Amino acid sequence: xxxxxxxxxxxxxxxxxxxxxxxxxxxxxxxxxxxxxxxxxxxxxxxxxxxxxxxxxxxxxxxxxxxxxxxxxxx
Length: 75
Description:
4-stranded antiparallel beta sheet; single chain; 2 helices; 28% strand; 33% helix; alpha+beta
């Protein structure tokens, strides 16, 4: 998933803030938008850590890194 697609998905979550929508990639992440805190909450399922992101830029960057890990030859 590229950064443009990720940002589009995040904007959609904000548009439907009155609806409980959860994006899950089994074994990897869970993403929700919290109307109460006006933040994206990203849970890494391997360790259960919940990270809040308060804008589309920071949330999209975090998701991009998770969804597109560096390959060994990229290091």
